[in-house]
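Study this:
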Amino acid sequence: MQIDVIETTGLGDRSYLVSAEGVAAVIDPQRDIDRVLALAEKRGVRIAVVLETHLHNDYLTGGLELARAVGARYVVPAGDSVAYERVPAADGDVLEAGPLRLRVLHTPGHTHHHVSYVLADASGAVQAVFTGGSMLYGSTGRTDLVGPEHTDELTHAQYRSVRRLADELPAGTPVFPTHGFGSFCSATPTSGDSSTVGEQLRVNPALTQDEQTFVDQLIAGLTAIPAWYSHMGPGNAAGPAPVDLSAPRPVDPAELAERLAAGEWVVDLRTRTAFAAGHLPGALNFELAIANFVTYVGWLVPWGAPLTLIGETEQQVAEARRELVRIGIDRLAGAAIGSPEELAAGRDLAAYPVSDFAGLATAMAADPELAVVDARRADERAGGGVRGSRHIPIHELVDRVDEVPDGDVWVYCGSGYRASIAASLLARTGRRPVLVNGSYGDPDTGAAAVGLHDDSTTR
């Protein structure tokens, strides 16, 4: 048997193509199904069945379109109410595709109806388990996405589901989760690139803690939910429309200027340092080269708001479009391609300084009242921050921008990525940001290294 991993690093997820003797099964495919089709063609296999472990909350599935495109059976957990024909997957069912045998285990926790699929060969020997958002590598899927009123119940269910997997499967069984590679669907950070049930017995909190300790610690550690998540479950239940990866409508410099003047969301895809050195006034910097691009566009841009991209090349825009359709941002207002100078058409560019934590330390020594904004999440801030800094998580900045003083303001985060978004948002309001481009926790150049870390910071 061949198990191919299809990485979607921008969302921290994995899909899988399992094949043997010319027949294949696909588990939890992303919406851009051309990647799956190309891989199946490369392997010379026919996709006979497409399976979902759950109705996803962090992306729109490609499963429905893929199944229709290749004439495969489409398998969705039996308890989920959906608006399309599917094969319901109930506990104990065995789905066959050529020599592949996939046994359904009901493993609620991430959602009420979540299932895992145990892969066996024709002889019945277990080959792997696909765990979706149940057993992850050193963690589990978060349990608060269905609604806060269900979190406690689902957290207890998650504990029992992971234990069921460990009890019923051989220790050597390879584990293939969908989430846990940077996904916000993970309850806590995961570790490692592969694992087995036996290894999880030693490291997974659901298997090393008693039930109440696990429940209390998981719930206490849950972080903010990205804004676009609220649209994914309903979209997957309704059935996503076929994916459209065509090029956005071209936007010329004059139209681009009008959109910027109107305060629309115009996203520049260049690196944070290139953007800071010169950009169109009013544009916002969401660096495409970093895996977090789609996370923060989806989190900050109001759902359905007109969105225009600025890219240096058509390829860059095409890559951004692919990332965005995965979470249902289908209708871009357009895209402008070229350098800032070309797109400015004679108008002046804007810019702001870039520094590091050493530079921030020097500036704070010269001006103890210096305005500093920490754009990290609350769970990061709980471990401390730059002394005297004002904590405004990036996903709250638009609504709390009035809390930021006018004039000069330094902005930092954990790496510089979110700070670059924050700096561009602040620049659009007329403030004068300084981007702190560096890792907060770097032992050589981070906040502690230059004497700025304060673990008593709560503001």
